[in-house]
Amino acid sequence: MLILRLILMLAGLSILLCGGMYLFTRNRRYLRIAWQIVYFVIFVLLVFGLLFLLGSMY
Fold first, then answer.
1. What's this model's pTM, rounded to 2 decimal places?
2. What is the rounded distance in angstroms from the CA atom of residue 48 to the CA atom of residue 54?
3. Domain tally, the chain
4. Which domain covers residue 53, as residue numbers?
5. How far is CA 20 from CA 2, 54, 57, in A?
């Protein structure tokens, strides 16, 4: 669970940084990067959830 918390904290900080950079530069590239981070975090959460369910079945 420590790894999951670390990933969530780093992702949250990265999204905040991308949002701040977008507000500072008005470059839409930073919004695209933020959405890619969101998609990656959702994927990682799904994988961890699936592994957790598989581990609890046995």
1. 0.86
2. 10
3. 1
4. 2-57
5. 27, 39, 43
